[in-house]
Amino acid sequence: MQKKTIEDLKDNQLEGKKVLVRVDFNVPLNEALEITDDTRIKAALSTIKYLISHQAKVILMSHLGRPKGEVIEKLRLDPVARRVSELLEQDVKKANDCIGEEVEKVISNLQKSEVVLLENLRFHPEEEKNNPEFSKALANLADIFINDAFGTAHRAHASTVGVAELLPSYAGFLMAKEIEVLSNLMENPERPFVVVLGGAKISGKIEIVQNLLSIADKILIAGGMSYTCLAALGHEVGKSLLEKYDLRVVFKMLKEAEEKGNKILLPIDLVVAIKEVSEKAVSKLVRVENIPKDGTGVDLGKRSLVKFEKEIKKAKTVFWNGPVGVFEIEKYAKGTNRIAKILADMQGEAVTIIGGGDSIAAIDKAGLTEKMTHISTGGGASLEFLGGKKLPGIEVLPEK
Q: What is the Cα–Cα distance from 60 to 118, expressed in whole angstroms?
């Protein structure tokens, strides 16, 4: 997949031009409205700096949280604008809306190499509906559109699809890198190729697993996903996370994997918390055949970890999405931390790709970010890409 990128623009096509950039600045904030993880902001810096150095007038747009079409004060992008200013070491203007006369005035006063950040796109319900008039209002602000928000590429919104249909459009550096890395995974991974899937949900991931059955050599399923699989095989899962999903579909998927050479590996033992999930809860190690009715699966057991480690260490390519336990609670983070450490130790010997979301938080918490080959900024987007789905935010960008 070869999309036109920011580098396909000649220097004279950028100088003095108003460039609208869709970034993914959907960062976590604490109660004091301070950013607790600026990974996504840093990931977009190369594109922003490139535009500044080529004397473009840079207009950044993003969403933050889920305001559902209403103005929510604590979801304003002011803390983000301050952080971008610090990282760029130059003043970043902040608009109080993303469309309208006031915004147009701010942009008309922009000088070459200056940067403005528009207000939260999702304060307008039209954004998520890909409303044509809203798309037009955004497109009218600029001469060129750059999409560098891979994390929202699976959403057909005004700022990802609508605008791209109205302006000359290109992929930013981050978007181009994500497409390249994930396309290689799909088309030509170095083998053995092992996928580790954790996290809470299985709905939406069944199609992805089915697609991966024909690409990956092994798929290791843990965390919340695994309890639905164990239930489909007839196991008691106690109070473990169990989605209301058609277990017959899950059973059929597991059977298909078995026929393809036991491609899916599930846990054989688990750490379960009794009665409640907390730091103080009583927990014990049980085989999957013996999960008590008042027990909740919270981490991989010792035997499961050994089994998973053996498969991961054979791999030349590993894709990991989702923690394998309730890693937010320290005593249930052992499995997740162990997998992070195994991948870190494979640096230089295998391609290790972290598929966004909580996996990034786990790697970051363990201080192992620098030891991974690639950290994807979009959990949902990377999974859908691997599931063979066409992502609207990428599809709309023109081919080279």
A: 6
Residue 40 falls in the annotated catalytic set: yes
Least Cα distance to 19 among 163, 175, 123 occurs for 163
32-46 confidence digits (pLDDT tens): 999 988 888 999 999
224-246: per-residue pLDDT in tens? Answer: 889 999 999 999 999 998 877 78
Per the residue annotation, which of 201, 252, 302, 316 is the catalytic one?
Answer: 201
pTM, two decimals, is 0.89
Q: 189-386: which CATH number, 3.30.559.10, 3.40.190.10, 3.40.50.1260, 3.40.50.720?
A: 3.40.50.1260
The yes-or-no verdict on residue 200 having pLDDT over 80 is no
380 catalytic residue (yes or no)? yes
Q: Where does the pLDDT of residue 379 fall: very low under 50, low under 70, confident under 90, or very high at 90 and above?
A: confident
Report domain extents, the chain: 6-177, 189-386
Catalytic site residue 18? no
Query: What CATH number should be reported for the domain whose range is 6-177?
Result: 3.40.50.1260
297, 301, 357, 378: the active-site residue: 357
Burial 99-137 (b: 16+ CB within 10 A, else e): beeebeebbeebeebbbbbbbbbbbbebbbebbeebbeb
Q: Is residue 331's pLDDT more than 80?
A: yes
Residue 248 among the catalytic residues = no
Domain 6-177 shares a fold with domain 189-386: yes
* Catalytic one of 22, 40, 177, 307: 40
